[in-house]
Amino acid sequence: MSKSSLTLIAGSAKTKQALQEQLEQLLGDYVHVKSHATDEGIPQSLEDKIILYSSDTAYDNSNAMYNVNAEKIIVGKRTVNHEYIDKLLRIHDGSAVLVVNDDDDATISLIESLYQLGVDHVQFIPFRKGILFYEDVQIAVSPGETHLCPSYIKEVIDIGVRLFDITTILEVVECCGLNKDISSKISERYISNIIELQRKLLFAERDAKQMSEHIQNVLGTVDDGILVVNEEGRITVFNNRLAALFHVDAQDVVNKYLEHVMNRRDITDFIMDGRDESKFFDINGVDVVIFRLQMMKENTIVVTFKSVHQAFEIEKTAQREMRNKGFYTKYCFDDIIGEDDVMKDRKQIAKKLALSEHPILIQGETGTGKELFAHAIHEHSLRKNGPFLAVNCSALTETLLESELFGYEEGTFTGAQRGGKKGLFELADNGTIFLDEIGDISLTVQSHLLRVLQEGEIRRIGGRRIIPINVRVITATNKDLQGKMRDGSFRTDLFYRLNVLNLYIPSLNERRADIPLLIKHLITKSGKWVKVEQDVLEYFMQYNWPGNIRELKSTIDYMLTVCEGNVVTKSDLPFMHGQAGDSVMSEYSACESMLEMQERAFILEVIKQYNEKGKTASRELISSQSKESEFVLSPQQIRRRLDILEGEGFVVKGRGRAGTKITAAGIEYLYFLKSKCSV
Ligand SMILES: Nc1ncnc2c1ncn2[C@@H]1O[C@H](COP(=O)(O)OP(=O)(O)OP(=O)(O)O)[C@@H](O)[C@H]1O
Predict the structure, then answer these.
(1) What is the pLDDT confidence band of residue 449, given thresholds at 50, 70 and 90?
(2) Which residues contact residue 279 at a Cβ distance below 8 angstroms, ignoring those fewer than 6 apart?
(3) Are the C-beta atoms of 301 and 294 separated by less than 8 Å?
(4) DSSP character for 160?
(5) Nearest-CA neighbor of 338 among 385, 289, 373?
(6) What is the mean pLDDT of residues 289-303?
(7) 232-259 tens-digit pLDDT
């Protein structure tokens, strides 16, 4: 069968080329296709079996001007190239979209075919020549006429030259007299183009979905809040951490305008228009640093939200690594939270004391922050580049404390290290030593310490060599040293040596105004983004906090562990606060000594940490961990202590090789212990 013949007449060379390609692809096996464009010039007389015009306009513009001789003249109908439909479907719902074509009729017919194709989620606005401004329009769509779009439009989508629709193709098939088989093959080709495209779209969509799930999972593991905003000001990424901070559901906010989700003008202004890279904000009671980064190429803003505490910690870690020295202070005066006048006054005095070289005795109730002050004083002193060593005198037995402080020579006692060991006084040379709980040291250690202070030199235990030392001594106690001097358990001469400068730290009761500030600080520091209900705050304001800030801290820690969602309520209060009051406190306080309390807290903490990882803790395991702590306990000693703790209902021991688990009462008891002693 000889091929039929067809001449295509289009308006522009670009349209001619696209339509010629379409016809060749669909009909090329059966029809010989020639083509002309009016803007390139058309022969004076045209003769063919079929003359196919690309549009009504092409027909109107050229038909009258040339001699046309054809068996059949067809004016084609055109539709949007399916390849570009996904671009249109990706425009956000309800957006205003300017439709730009080279004449008004063509524009209207393009809008019609877009609606017919089901692109009806946006509002199309027809472009009119001469009108340069369209209110609230940021996106334009054009079939290859993008040069006509007003220049202020942010996003221009070129949907390419529109192609002939299926009815035009079938009309050509019919005129060529092609048989049924061929005609159905051609329609299949037309349809398979669409199916192929849909398949690609489907894969692309599936890949995009997998990628987005992957990104969400990755973002879920990050400790910071992460937000991404696109050029329209809509949210494209909002991780769960951020959702917790703003008390919203992460699923609900994607695609919404930023200002509809965060109704904080200061924050949205900073994100959208900010020139700075980072800024502090208080968001629902949490101090946060927001870092913003503009990705120019994608016109996207990436924002991270970090707890102030974390941001500082990162800074501090870097500094520490730079200093790369073994013994350093962990706190400075800025870490001591307190705006109450009495506290401000204490900090002022402490700063002055820091600058002298004399020993300082810090007194105050348990948990008031004496250790914190000791760190800050060293950090503020002329010795700040020297070492700072802290030792808790009540946590060590007499012999251990002596050997820790003054060191020993080789062979002094069984188990002594080869080559002897330097004591903390030697290690703290040119720096500061902080002796916490000084009220608990024995009379033997007291006299040894007195000698060191009087002579400014030490002699290791079992040694003869005299080692001069240059160490500033800061001590602290919550005990009544005057009372101890009266009953003879603390040496008066040592007291006067230590108490050259005295600093009294007020209890939390004496500075209640600081309670809300401390709560906020402790929550921020925990890295959790939660809100504390008003009645909890009220309760905290009237409770008398015998364990001071340490008790407040462990109560908050406990509540943050048990609270559901992002709100701390009164039902999250530990048992001893909520229901039984002080009676439980005194029941708990049955421990003989601070050392016993600390040991118990250590054991329970190890068990709790293992349980949190889904494991139980064996005696051997706890014993081996104890070697790295201040309490070296053998598996037998651990067994005895676990028996007692089990009898009190704080742990449950497994049979045979199964390890131990902490009970709910045990967790609460642990927090109580932590509020009473520093571990
Ligand atoms: N002003 C404060 N600001 C922030 N945190 C504080 C403040 N005071 C105390 N803390 C925190 O409370 C806890 C107890 O503080 P610290 O160990 O310094 O108390 P202490 O007076 O030395 O107690 P003790 O007499 O029992 O040894 C620590 O975790 C400390 O970080």
Answers:
(1) very high
(2) 270, 289, 290
(3) yes
(4) -
(5) 373
(6) 82
(7) 889 988 888 888 888 888 888 888 999 9
Please check whether residue 36 is in contact with residue 44, taking contact to mean a CB–CB distance below 8 angstroms.
no
Sign, CA torsion 624/625/628/633: negative
Which residue from 352, 393, 396 is spatially nearest to 373, judged by alpha carbons? 352
Contact 246/262 with Cβ under 8 angstroms?
A: yes
Confirm if 574 and 555 have CB atoms less than 8 A apart.
Answer: yes
Residue with the two structure tokens 């979209």: 97
Report how far residue 254's alpha carbon sits from residue 220's, in angstroms, rounded to the nearest whole number.
15
Q: Which atom of ligand 1 is nearest to the CA of 436?
A: 27
CA-CA distance, 522 to 551, in Å (whole number)?
12
CA angle 372, 375, 376 (to 5 degrees): 85
Q: Which residues line ligand 1 (CB under 6 A)?
A: 336-338, 364, 366-372, 436, 476, 478, 521, 549-550, 553, 678
Query: Rounded to the nearest whole angstrom, what is the distance from the C-alpha of residue 575 to the centroid of ligand 1?
Result: 23
| Separation of alpha carbons 528 and 561, rounded Å | 10
Contact (CB, 8 A) for 584 and 576: yes
CA dihedral for 392, 397, 402, 403, sign (positive or negative): negative
Per-residue tokens: 2: 């000889």
Looking at the predicted structure, is the pLDDT value of residue 542 above 80? yes
For 641-666, the pLDDT digits (tens) are 888 888 888 888 877 667 888 887 88
Q: Each residue of 5-19: pLDDT tens digit?
A: 999 999 889 899 999
Go through the domains of the chain in sequence order and give each one's CATH number: 4-78+168-199 (3.40.50), 82-160 (3.40.50), 222-310 (3.30.450.20), 333-504 (3.40.50.300), 509-573 (1.10.8.60), 592-676 (1.10.10.10)
Q: How far apart are CA 117 and CA 109, in angstroms?
A: 12
Strands (E), 416-530: 421-422, 432-436, 457-458, 467-468, 472-477, 501-504
Q: How buried is residue 544: exposed, middle or buried, by Cβ count under 10 Å (0-12/13-18/19+)? A: exposed
Q: Six-digit token pair at 100?
A: 């730009």
Phi, psi of 428 (to 5 degrees): -90, 10
Specify the amino acid at residue 526: S
Pocket test for ligand 1, best of 331, 336, 371, 441 (most atoms within 8 A of CB): 371
Q: Which residues pair with 123 in a beta bridge?
A: 96
Look at ligand 1, atom 25, and give the residue with the nearest C-alpha.
366
Contacts of 218 (CB under 8 A, 6+ apart): none
Which 3 state secondary structure label does DSSP give 355? coil
- Residue 633: exposure state from Cβ atoms within 10 A (0-12, 13-18, ≥19): buried
